[in-house]
Amino acid sequence: MSNTNILYQHGTLALLVPGLLDGTITMKELLRHGDTGIGTGEGLDGELVILDGTPYQVDSNGSVNIVKDDFTLPFANIHFGSYQPLTSVDGISQKELEEKILSLTSTNTFFSIELHGQFTNVKTRAVKKSHKPYDTLAKTAESQSIFEKDTVTGTLLSYYSPEIFDGAAVGGFHHHFLSDNHDFGGHLLSLGTASGDVKLQQFDTLEQHLPVKNQSYMDFDFSGEDILGDIHKSE
């Protein structure tokens, strides 16, 4: 039986900062650890939203593709979905949404939010795949594509990480979005309003998986990097 209390994370956001963008886990392997999640492909190849075991990639052209088993990722969060109803919202802002969620849960553990409903003024991004030698995260992110929808029905899939884990993940919320029509999505930059049912899944265990077979990662010296500063600029 799948353990729904575990959040599995492959890689860290910190390793993306200096440009350690090799794909170090396949989608086939990742899906052994869950059916719901987010991530990015090798070389920051688009933004991933995994729903009900199907891995959707929003690429830099805005197309939504279902990726194959051999697609590789440097970073991903995944878990076995078992969401419980938390609250309903009607036309509230992103800031109000996040504040409401936090008022109903704890900031001291990892959790995931799934909000299916109607959204306005949604802005997302996806980055064009880069190739070796990789640039830094900040430099690579400069080639991001921005997508916008005035109104859209879809799913907001989010992870919350406690501030103490900032660097391994993003301290706070990390949002991805996918439209019901599978024609729009990506890493959420902002939204105007959200309406729908908010569901919560809390985790008591973080399973952190590191790419120890990747020599570039194993040999890298992180001591000279502004890890947190660069993560927050890029996110």
Automatic annotation (TrEMBL):
Pathway: Polyol metabolism; (R,R)-butane-2,3-diol biosynthesis; (R,R)-butane-2,3-diol from pyruvate: step 2/3. Its EC number is 4.1.1.5. GO terms for molecular function: acetolactate decarboxylase activity. GO terms for biological process: acetoin biosynthetic process. Keywords: Acetoin biosynthesis, Decarboxylase, Lyase. It catalyses: (2S)-2-acetolactate + H(+) = (R)-acetoin + CO2. InterPro entries: Acetolactate_a_deCO2ase. NCBIfam families: acetolac_decarb (TIGR01252). PANTHER family: ALPHA-ACETOLACTATE DECARBOXYLASE. Belongs to the alpha-acetolactate decarboxylase family. This is Alpha-acetolactate decarboxylase. It comes from Companilactobacillus bobalius DSM 19674.
